[in-house]
Write a structure and sequence with these properties.
Blueprint (H helix, E strand, L loop, with lengths): L8 H18 L3 H21 L6 H4 L2 E4 L2 E4 H13 L3 E2 L13 E2 H10 L10 E2 L3 H6 L20 E2 L1 H5 L4 H13 L6 H20 L5 E3 L8 E2 L5 H17 L16 H15 L7 H13 L1 H19 L6 H28 L7 H23 L2 H20 L18 H33 L7 H36 L7 H21 L5 H26 L13 H31 L16
Antiparallel strand pairs: 1-2, 3-4, 5-6, 7-8
């Protein structure tokens, strides 16, 4: 019988060390060893932070069944707290003396939900942000139905008791059920209602012991819940809970814990040994659990965007100095971040058993990877520093959005939808069409750079602007080829999955619109209808087509056969970003046109244009 003693972050470190030894043996170059050494340092540094309380490691590694897969209790706790509370760390309200209290981990909070749920009934832990929903539940109205003018109007956190006792809650849920039965698209209000339903359902499931499932059955695939435990299994879990309480940080002045209570690591080891004996085959997930704990503690994508940002700063600095070291340092940062990024993809692919591009979060991370990949290739051949700088900025923006908007972009590891279980077509079609977005967003950032220099007064036919324009042109060429290939492969996949090659589904239609928009821009460039300024402006404006095909169809329209990619949230931010972008392009076009007219008329401070300036549009 296999013991889980000491299993957790340290076990993950041992497994990672074995992988690094194998890779370092294959990469005999000095650069390869330096990169791997840097990654190993990051791995142990972050894992060490997660291991500052070693007695919690075994509990973090406790296997549970939730969401259609086996995961460590650490993942379940973080996902649950993120859904209900809106963050993976709980920040208690200040004490009676006004002093801030220490933050609590998701493990501590979810375990106390299981052990003593009643103490949470009057704690503000359920996040409700949608103003319309708060008004429907009369959470922002006084007894006379008037809007409150005190601080409660800005509240985002509510107690389970005040929500569950709300007389209007059943009516709101009935309206949601009617919408579902009619198969109507849920607007932001009903999406908020659905989220609240999930929050309350999960909290009630945890407090009643129905979630998560902790012991495999002797036969079948559905694990037993805490409420279903009996006999020795129940007794061992009670021992585990006692040990957990004993390990909790004690408040000042509290009595010392009883010395005869078992340590948490030993208690978890005994419980898992008994659970494993129920069905050793179903409980054989030690390696996967170790890898997922390592992935949770490392946060590879967060580390990657921080290093990408440092690389972008160094490259931007290199453009304003004759020294070569900032440029080389920027390259080194980008390479290290790219390897960390790729390593994160490898971990996520291993855990899911598929390419990590099945939801919006994963495609955003994939686009960031593709932008850097193309930027490094272009930079190596074209020697244009704006390529690498633009790729790094696109990667930073994409990964910050993915990292800071968990309510919109779900980062949890979820099983594939049935339509996506043709792994071959998922890999070929989705990877191809989404990486085309990376090349097109690279051209978008180059377009913004070019417009900025024109706005600052640099002639549109100057060497720098022409260089940026040519780079954007090349990036669009690559993006168009990949986008066209992705659409064709998508048609093949549609024929395989749905029995027709093309059906004017909104996703298909907007992908085609985006392709035609970029093809029109390329043809206009070849025909001489647009030159430097037109090409740069087109690179920026055409990106709105990609956003619509990528984000708008799933999060705004919410219609079509691609329902597995539907989501909610962020519409106001995306709309504002597109609006500001169009305003910027329009304003720069106005300034540029005014300068050209002034140059042609021989008036104004720019009355002596550079050769060819007046002819360049």
């Amino acid at each position: 019988m296999k013991s889980t003693r000491g299993f957790g972050a340290r076990s993950g470190q041992r497994w990672i060390l074995e992988v690094f030894r194998e890779l370092s043996g294959r990469l005999n170059t000095r650069v390869g060893r330096v990169v791997l050494g840097g990654l190993l340092c990051f791995s142990f540094m972050v894992s060490a932070q997660a291991s500052q309380r070693p007695d919690f490691d075994a509990l973090r590694a406790l296997p549970v069944q939730d969401g259609g897969r086996i995961k460590p209790f650490d993942t379940f706790a973080q996902e649950s707290l993120r859904l209900i509370y809106g963050a993976t760390v709980y920040k208690p309200e200040p004490g009676p003396d006004g002093q801030a209290r220490p933050k609590k981990s998701a493990i501590e909070i979810v375990m106390t939900w299981i052990l003593a749920p009643s103490i949470w009934d009057d704690q503000r832990i359920i996040k409700v942000e949608h103003t319309g929903l708060k008004r429907a539940l009369r959470l922002v109205e006084d007894k006379n139905g008037n809007d409150k003018i005190d601080a409660d109007e800005d509240r985002k956190l509510y107690t389970p008791a005040e929500l569950m006792s709300n007389s209007r809650l059943p009516l709101v849920f009935q309206e949601l059920a009617a919408k579902r039965e009619a198969k109507e698209k849920l607007d932001p209000y009903f999406q908020a209602v659905q989220t609240l339903e999930n929050q309350l359902g999960l909290f009630q499931g945890i407090r009643s012991g129905q979630v998560p499932r902790v012991v495999p059955p002797k036969e079948g695939t559905t694990w037993r819940t805490l409420a279903d435990l009996d006999g020795e299994l129940r007794a061992k879990f009670v021992d585990l809970t006692r040990a957990f309480i004993n390990e909790l940080p004690q408040e000042k002045g509290a009595a010392e814990p009883a010395p005869n209570v078992k340590r948490l690591t030993e208690a978890v080891s005994e419980f898992t040994a008994l659970a494993r004996a129920e069905n050793p085959t179903a409980y054989n997930h030690d390696r996967d659990i170790a890898v997922e704990l390592h992935f949770n503690s490392l946060h590879p994508f967060r580390i990657a965007w921080i290093i990408f940002l440092l690389g972008a700063i160094l490259i931007a600095f290199a453009m304003n100095t004759e020294r070569r070291w900032p440029y080389l340092a920027g390259w080194a940062c980008v390479l290290v971040a790219f390897v960390v990024h790729t390593y994160g993809f490898g971990l996520r692919s291993y855990l899911t058993g598929r390419p990590p591009v099945s939801n919006m979060y994963e495609t955003v991370i994939w686009v960031a990877w593709g932008a850097i990949f193309f930027a490094m290739i272009f930079e190596a051949f074209m020697k244009n520093r704006f390529m690498l700088l633009s790729g790094a900025i696109v990667a930073v923006i994409s990964m910050i959005v993915a990292d800071s908007a968990p309510a919109v972009l779900d980062s949890s590891l979820q099983p594939l939808e049935p339509v996506l279980r043709s792994t071959l077509w998922l890999t070929i079609h989705v990877l191809t069409i989404t990486i085309s977005y990376a090349a097109l967003f690279l051209a978008w950032m180059l377009g913004l750079f070019g417009l900025y220099f024109i706005f600052r007064g640099l002639p549109a036919n100057s060497a720098k602007v022409r260089e940026i324009t040519q780079s954007a042109y090349r990036a669009i060429q690559v993006g168009v080829v990949l986008l066209a290939a992705g659409i064709i492969l998508g048609g093949v996949w549609a024929d395989y999955s749905w029995g027709r090659f093309w059906g004017w589904d909104p996703k298909e239609t907007w992908a085609l619109i985006a392709l035609l928009g970029y093809i029109a821009l390329l043809h206009a460039r070849l025909a001489g209808l647009v030159r430097e300024f037109g090409m740069l402006a087109g690179s920026v404006v055409s990106a709105s087509l990609v956003i619509m095909a990528w984000y708008g169809v799933n999060f705004v329209l919410g219609a079509g056969l691609h329902s597995y990619g539907f989501g909610a949230g962020g519409v106001e931010y995306v709309s504002a970003a597109i609006g500001l972008q169009l305003i910027w392009v329009t304003y720069v076009a106005y300034v540029h046109r005014a300068r050209l007219q002034a140059a042609e008329s021989g008036s104004g401070p720019d009355s002596t244009p550079a050769p060819g300036k007046a002819q360049n549009q």
